[in-house]
């Protein structure tokens, strides 16, 4: 969605460790978004990757926050 799929194995593990330890994002992360949206996405991901579980948002926290845009989906979007 915001970044290319990670390869299985060590690249995935290394990228996630870097994100968790210092919240350093790869230079091409969310490169297709406007700068304001890149910052918002990075804040959201940092929030969800907090080291302490009690500091991470619950699903309800995410839904109640203004950090996750609500997208209206029509029922017919799921029809085949």
Automatic annotation (TrEMBL):
It comes from the Eukaryota. This is Protein kinase domain-containing protein. It comes from Gongylonema pulchrum.
